[in-house]
Design brief:
About 25% of the residues lie in helices and about 20% in strands. By secondary structure, it is of the alpha+beta class. It has 2 domains: about 200 residues, Fructose-1,6-Bisphosphatase, subunit A, domain 1 (Fructose-1,6-Bisphosphatase, Chain A, domain 1), CATH 3.30.540.10; about 130 residues, 3-Layer(aba) Sandwich (D-Maltodextrin-Binding Protein, domain 2), CATH 3.40.190. α2 runs antiparallel to α3 and α6 crosses α9. The chain is globular. The N terminus is likely disordered. The structure holds 2,5-anhydro-1,6-di-O-phosphono-D-glucitol (AHG) and manganese (II) ion (2 copies).
Length: about 425
């Protein structure tokens, strides 16, 4: 039997009233909720997930794994319900991505819309967002969700809206889901691997929005609700990614190691293929968009130059692998060892990746596999987002190589 020593302190936050979807809802007016507007996040709970030998046995299905987790950890029972929805959604998205290559599917190409971040949305960005949103909300366990493809967080508890009326909100534990429904979607038309990234936080009940409040009266309360999604990665209770590639993979952490499942299409089930994944501590692969090299910070340039020339700390000559789909690049990094990065540069000081639904969940997985994830100067998991689509520089992967980057930044300070 294995006990996690990792105590996860969970945020107490709140519920209510955001959706960009229906006229009856109040959309939060600014994505930049200043930190002073947001109530402090009280830490309320500690969970120590317990796993047993069933959870470490290759071949068990994700359903069986989650039943075991729920039995051993009754306080996580409702979290495992969310994973039932994630399991189903990843299978459905597998089929969507796979079928997209057929002319009859008509799901490739652009939607003709631009998301709040100014990016052209692909049809599959929109379809997978809707699919995942519906799968999660109908668990009745979701309070708020935030997605790359939603302008603002979507509330599923408060506000009698036409959208929320159709949802059965159960009593009991509720969660906040943050996700990137189709990561690497620019690659999808070419049949190159894509993925889905999901982070799950606890949802607090201390946000009582008066259903009768109007206009400015609601602002403070809504800011408190928004705080549900603006939690640092250290508050995550779970994170997962699905990778749509030669197989579909589902990798997850509940704060007690990383568990990798592979979809067996003959039985339609995810089966455990690698329990307790650990990233090699040493490596010889780096994975970054080298077209930006000239604009990177000097410490990073120096370290990468050393890796290229074999004059770095390990005296090993590195090779380069870069798909341009974070999920695919991080998955390979976890299995083979390596360093994945999307650093800040002179043009985009915070890089490209989004903290809430890309940086933090993938950092949680990386750390749980024994790796490091940093901006170069601070741990990604400890950054509290100030707004939903905030970007963050990321360097993550094998311990010794990432440490070399951190040492270079420290020496430059
Ligand atoms: P998304 O498709 O969700 O917008 O994310 C794309 C991200 C990430 O998957 C990848 O690591 C990175 O963008 C690639 O960016 P470049 O094309 O600038 O290398
Ligand atoms: Mn992405
Ligand atoms: Mn995306």
């Amino acid at each position: 039997m294995k006990f996690s020593l990792c105590a996860i302190f969970l945020a107490a936050s709140s519920a209510n009233a955001f959706t960009s979807q229906t006229a009856g809802n109040r959309a939060f007016s600014s994505l930049h909720a200043a930190s002073t507007d947001i109530p402090s996040m009280a830490r309320s709970q500690t969970k120590v997930p317990v796993f047993d030998e069933v959870c470490d046995t290759t071949g068990v299905t994700l359903t069986r794994f989650m039943n075991e987790v729920a039995m051993l950890n009754p306080e996580l029972r409702e979290l495992t319900t969310l994973f039932g929805a994630i399991d189903t959604a990843c299978k459905a998205m597998t089929n969507l991505v796979k079928r997209s290559q057929l002319p009859s599917s008509e799901t490739l190409g652009y939607q003709g819309e631009v998301n709040i971040q100014g990016e052209d949305q692909k049809k599959l960005d929109v379809i997978t967002n809707d699919l995942l949103k519906r799968a999660l909300r109908f668990t009745g366990r979701l309070g708020v969700l935030a997605s790359e493809e939603e302008d603002v967080p979507v509330d599923l508890v408060g506000g009698a809206t036409s959208d929320s009326q159709e949802i059965v909100i159960e009593e009991g534990e509720k969660y906040v889901a943050v996700f990137d429904p189709l990561d690497g979607s620019s690659n999808v038309d070419a049949g190159i691997p894509t993925g889905t990234i999901i982070g799950i936080y606890e949802h607090s009940e201390n946000c009582d929005v008066d259903p009768a409040c109007v206009g400015d009266e609601c602002t403070e309360q809504e800011a408190q609700c928004l705080a549900n999604t603006l939690q640092p990665g250290t508050n995550l209770v779970a994170a997962a990614y699905c990778l749509y590639s030669s197989s579909t993979f589902l990798s997850l952490t509940l704060g007690n190691g990383v568990y990798l499942f592979t979809l067996d299409e003959t039985i339609g089930e995810f089966v455990l293929s690698k329990p307790d994944v650990k990233i090699p501590e040493d490596c010889n692969i780096y994975s970054m968009n080298e077209a930006n090299f000239d604009k990177w910070d000097k410490p990073l340039k120096d370290v990468v130059t050393g890796w290229r020339e074999g004059t770095g700390k390990s005296e090993t000559r590195f090779t380069s692998r870069y798909i341009g789909s974070m999920v695919g690049d991080v998955h390979r990094t976890l299995l083979y060892g390596g360093v994945f990065g999307y650093p800040g540069d002179t043009k985009n000081v915070n890089g490209k990746l989004r903290l809430l639904y890309e940086g933090a969940p993938m950092s949680f997985i990386m750390e749980q596999a024994g790796g490091i994830s940093s901006t170069g100067k601070e741990r990604v998991m400890e950054i509290t987002p100030e707004y939903v689509h905030q970007r963050v520089p990321v360097v993550m992967g094998s311990k010794n190589a990432v440490q070399e980057v951190l040492d270079a930044y420290a020496a430059d300070a």
